[in-house]
Design brief:
Number of strands of chain A: 11
Low-confidence stretches of chain A: none
Number of domains of chain A: 2
Largest sheet of chain A: 5 strands, parallel
Shape of chain A: globular
Structural class of chain A: alpha/beta
Number of helices of chain A: 12
CATH architecture of the largest domain in chain A: 3-Layer(aba) Sandwich
CATH class of the largest domain in chain A: Alpha Beta
CATH superfamily of the largest domain in chain A: Aspartate/ornithine carbamoyltransferase
Oligomer: homotrimer
Helix content of chain A: 25-40%
Mean pLDDT of chain A: 93
CATH topology of the largest domain in chain A: Rossmann fold
């Protein structure tokens, strides 16, 4: 696929070769994210970081990625602060904002909104989440994390065994990751969810047609038994058809250290798209896993910066120039201390 | 007029020579806005971009203009986020904030607030809109757009024929633009509005005293017949004295392609201060004009960046230095592609 | 004390030698804050300026301080815009955000929250206010202002006579400043407050044990009689046990020019942590003091930038490198005009 000047809107845009190219560029960003070197290649370039729905993590991640390449960031972080509330169309917003900046990152609560915006934009647009629909950089950082975690064990994504746990019906992160995994070979997927929150059938059928092994279950213990990765998600009570149904599954999809020790193979990697709900009534990843070295959830967000730097670099066609605009970091950086 | 170190608060500050100077500097900013070159002349300078009323477009436009000159931007975008809500006076806010930055851009819902703030500020202040009162950079970008559109046809602002359409009673953009037009020669102005939303009489009288031709009408078809520019504005229903009155004029001031074709001279330029209300019940510029090459509304917002760069450059006295701090752009820029 | 890589969470961290080191570095920042020179030493570094409670002044002050050192700033300014509202723990927020930036400044409404966040952060954290608890850079800028104001009179902090006026029970600024003053010698402190809003006893006892003279009174006139500094604070009516009590003290702790002239020694310096409540019903510093040259409240906020630059420089270990990355300022700067 061609990246230069392209919009990044959906995981459907990517083929395996394109993904591997993104990952190779992401790897080359590590010295900048680690503050071993800085680069000023995008000095003078402007990102419009348009968040019409709150998301501190994703917004700051994109902003930092652009800053780390030397560019400037202009932002909006609330729909109320926008002329969209005065009846302005996405078409008009796109025509106007694309006159200001070199590239636009956009999050918006409505499905399809970012693609509509992109079709009117005069500069490349990266979808940072359009409601329940797509959030391609999240899927890429998830897959990139899987690749890196497996590489540590001298494995590759081909042959991966993964369990997806929780709300598999509504979670866009799960759907997008499953689509990307479909591009690889011999994936074994355990879909662990309450019956009412099962993975949509078209996604399952597509994976099977591509020759992957897909197993659905409502038993977490069974699903996480023989896998390399457990990918858990939030399960919101209001997604269930009734409170009775919600109560029935309460706590059954919550992973903690005891369950991990009893049911998982040693060194099974734990992932989550975040934010993790740490309130006592939540049903996902227990805090007692925080000291488990296989908890990869913060390596995921670290990898997000690398993936976003890679996307900016590819779309703005600077991958060959980054390193010639580099210089060493001279300030204290915690990243070189043992406890980082 | 003297720009260096001055506040930019009102269109009343400008004479024709000053305006032409601003426009000449704005012209020289084009290579930077087009990403042919970057300049770092304001590296180390800080703009405080203080928006105590939401306006994504204007806020981002000012911020990008400052970034394009190499400066940094600190922002506020909501009155709730401000100590103004804790009873702090504009005097105190101005004394404090002017200790942080090199220049301040301020929007505030109350008429006169920005001038009051500026009188206590220790650094130059640019008014980005103080309620119904003034928004001088909008008036300048409107006039600059008129100049450029006419120059394309080997014409100048002198001798312009323009129709202003919609709510001419409350629209500050219209009032300010009319004041600036008054500084030029032989302007013919058609004021098209419902009787209850007519242009204030003092503005009309001033234009007549300056020798311009002013015609008022409530018929859009009549007003837009023989003009170079149609400048339309939002007409908010709540501005009418009664719903009966609002209903009576519903749709009568809405320009669309059919009306344009039937009543306007060929190549009549269409302008609007934006945001345009694209909801079906709105009464201004129809979306079917989007493919009309004479729709200049996005050239207006593009020009806004040039005007704001010019104002920053003049106030901070860097117009002679910009080009010696320039270097070529090496990243992909959509601005050099045919579809931009 | 060791600054490099440390969190700055509480005034309890500082000893006198450490404070004097911070102040010496702050002094050396003056040419940059005055726009005589710029430095680019932190070019490529990123501050995450996380304000989970509104505070335009403090947020912009920290942001400008980082920009003046050449770094970039990513921000959040509202708790609603945060995944904290989705049940994310401070632990998770800290792990994630510290993967993005080089240093974090954080304000949060809950006491102890910033320390909890810092304990999970992988990069240094500066507390910019955790509810009623701590705001160490405010205490430092207050003390730094006292030092500079006294130095103007060839005096030092040792031997200082100061009156603290207003709500001394809840004001964190007062408590922190008193703790820092305790590190110096022969301080005479007049604590002026309504009986229900007295300074907590442990703070008073500690000062006495350190050999300082502490006098408590509910008469402002008596307290401000023989001092070098009057430090006033907001007194919020809702802090009183009853409206009767609030009414009883209404206006009794409001300093104005007449009271100043009658009761204060010549050139007594007036300070306030800001924001000052300028509404007519407020009970603190009258606007008629604005032309009094001894009103130091805006010198305090100016000094805040120097203190924050010093803290960033010390924590990021760049104090020796700043000046070798410096160059002259070439734009107009109001800071060199007589009226600044």
């Amino acid at each position: 696929m061609e990246f230069v000047g392209s919009h990044i809107l959906s995981v459907d845009q990517f083929d395996r070769k394109g993904i591997e190219h993104i990952f190779a560029i992401a790897d080359s960003m590590q010295p900048y994210a680690d503050r071993i070197r800085i680069t000023r290649i995008l000095q003078g370039a402007i990102l419009s970081n348009m968040f019409f729905e709150p998301s501190t993590r994703t917004r700051v991640s994109f902003g930092c990625a652009f800053n780390l390449l030397g560019g400037e960031v202009r932002e909006t972080s609330e729909i109320k602060a926008s002329s969209l509330t005065k009846g302005e169309s996405l078409y008009d917003s796109a025509r106007v904002l694309s006159g200001y900046s070199d590239i636009i990152v956009m999050r918006h609560p409505e499905s399809g909104s970012v693609a509509e915006f992109a079709s009117a934009s005069r500069v490349p647009v990266i979808n940072a989440g359009d409601g329940p629909n797509e959030h391609p950089s999240q899927a890429l950082l998830d897959l990139y994390t899987i690749k890196k975690e497996l590489n540590e064990k001298s494995r590759s994504v081909d042959g991966l065994r993964i369990a997806m746990v929780g709300d598999l019906k509504y979670g866009r992160a799960v759907h997008s990751l499953l689509k990307l995994l479909g591009l690889f070979k011999d994936i074994t997927i355990h879909l662990v969810s309450p019956p009412d929150l099962k993975t949509p059938d078209d996604i399952v059928q597509q994976l099977k047609q591509l020759g992957h092994a897909v197993h659905a279950t409502d038993s977490m213990e069974e699903g996480i038994h023989h896998v390399d990765i457990v990918y858990t998600t939030r399960t919101q009570e209001e997604r269930f058809p009734s409170q009775t149904e919600a109560d029935r599954y309460k706590g059954l999809f919550r992973l903690n250290q005891a369950i991990y020790t009893e049911f998982c193979e040693p060194n099974t990697v734990i992932m989550h798209p975040l934010p993790r709900d740490s309130r006592s009534q939540a049903q996902e990843l227990d805090d007692d896993l925080n000291t488990n070295p296989n908890l990869a959830i913060f390596r995921q967000t670290d990898n997000g910066v690398l993936i976003r730097m890679a996307l900016f670099s590819l779309v703005l066609d600077i991958t060959d120039q980054i390193h010639s605009h580099a210089s060493p970091v001279t300030w204290f950086t915690a990243r070189r201390t043992p406890n980082y």
